[in-house]
Amino acid sequence: MCPGYTAVLHMHSTMKEVRLRTIICRIDKKTNQKTEIRPRFIKQDDAAVVRFE
Known about the structure:
The protein has no helices and 4 strands. It is mainly beta and 53 residues long. It has one domain. Strands 1, 2, 3 and 4 form a 4-stranded antiparallel sheet that branches. Strand 1 and strand 2 form a beta hairpin. It is globular and about 30 Å long. Keywords: GTP-binding, Nucleotide-binding.
């Protein structure tokens, strides 16, 4: 996924269409440490901090 990607976010009983605005950082799942700041994209099963609009 990269900025501009559109998805449907499900939270409890609410569904909302959102767009990925920015990827802030990628996180290592084992250590919970930031591994890459501002990556260009993220892949399936990556952990990341992102901003939606």
